[in-house]
Design brief:
It contains 17 helices and 13 strands. By secondary structure, it is α/β, with parallel strands linked by helices. The protein folds into 2 domains: 88 residues, RuBisCO large subunit, N-terminal domain (Alpha-Beta Plaits); 277 residues, Ribulose bisphosphate carboxylase, large subunit, C-terminal domain (TIM Barrel). Helix 6 packs parallel to helix 16 and helix 16 crosses helix 17.
Length: 391
């Protein structure tokens, strides 16, 4: 089995030469007559340049094929092989990675498993983010959760910036919110997922995750790029961490924002996440608050869906963009809003209701008009604050 990687080289670069440097230097390397008795074995570890294709913009894409037996079936050794040392001295960018279907770690739950937990088989899922991000107490979190959970929310997550801080230690937050989750389920029969942020020193993470799950955590949030894809894989494979893992895209721009260097967003947030064991991935929507292209968003979406993960387009999501999201994703999407729920003029519960009201009247891909929106109520208030989502 082989692994294929597309590298994009800027105009003026000798793409064929650079691709050869990668194919040899990132695999077996060169050898002389001293290793002639090993030549056949060494050759089995060499990469191979498949093709070099000039692009209309003057760049070139070179495809290099790597033997799968050069790596350990995980994401960290894969990254070291395909871009490790070369990333510091070359002029190329990783545009795409094609892996064997069974490579890496599959999701334990994915979208289908998350739907089973929540008992929501078809409609889009609605997710919120605790706001403000810092400075709230554990009981503040519980009060916010009670408000949005009884309004019908499916999922809530900590802000990725919120660590295990003295103002609201992780276990205190978890215990306070767990009481609310139990109260909601007892009163309504509905389950709500609380993605508790997993943070800490590297050697503590597995033990901490197990302790959180034992204390009632029913989902985890992980800053995968801060802690490493290997950490995500370890958690996904841990039988004592049997809850969905939501991956946050923090740091992705450091890898992917440059058009000439690094690793593309579809690889960082799509392909690699899809093979790293997580169940849901957050990433920017192209009509949200961060500069992001539709091409990158949809490539991420397709990579995640190919492995059954939940797609969570984020950053600037509010009720006005619901028709656009439905046009891009259909029902298999998580509508994730921070300010778009918590800053609703009539309160966070109304923010949740505005999303359900939007889902009730939205036509996929057809922007809202003033006629579509009821004259009063949570959706009308949301439109007055955030607009109809036409930008």
């Amino acid at each position: 089995m082989t692994i294929e990687v597309d590298y994009r080289f800027p105009a003026g670069a000798d793409a064929a030469k650079e691709a050869k440097v990668i194919a040899v230097g990132q695999t077996a390397g060169s050898w002389d007559e001293r290793f002639s008795h090993r030549a056949e074995l060494l050759a089995q570890h060499l990469g191979r340049v498949v093709c070099v294709t000039p692009q209309p913009d003057g760049t070139s894409i070179a495809t290099v094929e790597f033997p799968e037996h050069n790596v350990e079936g995980d994401v960290p050794t894969l990254l070291t092989m395909i871009f490790g040392k070369y990333s510091m001295g070359g002029s190329g960018r990783v545009d795409a990675v094609r892996l064997p279907e069974d490579y890496g770690t599959p999701p334990k739950f994915g979208l289908a498993g998350i739907r089973r937990i929540l008992g929501v088989p078809e409609r889009p899922l609605v997710m919120a983010i605790f706001k403000p991000a810092l400075g709230l107490s554990a009981e503040d979190h519980a009060a916010i959760l009670r408000e949005v959970a009884f309004a019908g929310l499916d999922i809530i997550k900590d802000d990725e910036i919120l660590g295990d801080l003295p103002s609201a230690p992780t276990m205190e937050r978890l215990r306070a919110c767990r009481r609310v989750l139990d109260e909601v389920e007892k009163s309504t029969g509905r389950r709500v997922l609380y993605c508790t942020n997993l943070t800490g020193r590297g050697h503590e993470l597995s033990e901490k995750a197990r302790a959180m799950v034992a204390a009632g955590a029913n989902a985890l949030l992980l800053n995968v790029l801060s802690y490493g894809y290997g950490t995500a894989e370890a958690l996904a494979r841990d039988p004592q961490v049997g809850v969905p893992i939501f991956a946050h895209p923090a740091l992705a721009g450091a890898f992917a924002a440059s058009p000439d260097f690094g690793i593309s967003y579809p690889v960082v947030l799509g392909t690699l996440m899809a093979h790293a064991g997580v169940d849901a991935v957050l990433y920017p929507a192209h009509y949200g608050s961060l500069p992001f292209t539709a091409a990158n968003e949809f490539a991420i979406r397709d990579a995640l869906r190919a492995r059954g993960l939940a797609c969570v387009p984020s950053a600037g999501i509010h009720p006005g963009v619901v028709p656009r999201v439905l046009g891009d994703y259909g029902n298999d999407v998580v509508l994730n809003a921070g300010s778009g729920i918590m800053d609703h003029p009539d309160g966070a519960a109304a923010g949740v209701q505005a999303f359900f009201d939007a889902l009730a009247v939205a036509k996929p891909g057809v922007p809202f008009t003033q006629v579509d929106v009821p004259p009063t109520g949570p959706l009308r208030s949301a439109m007055l604050k955030w607009g109809l989502g036409k930008k």
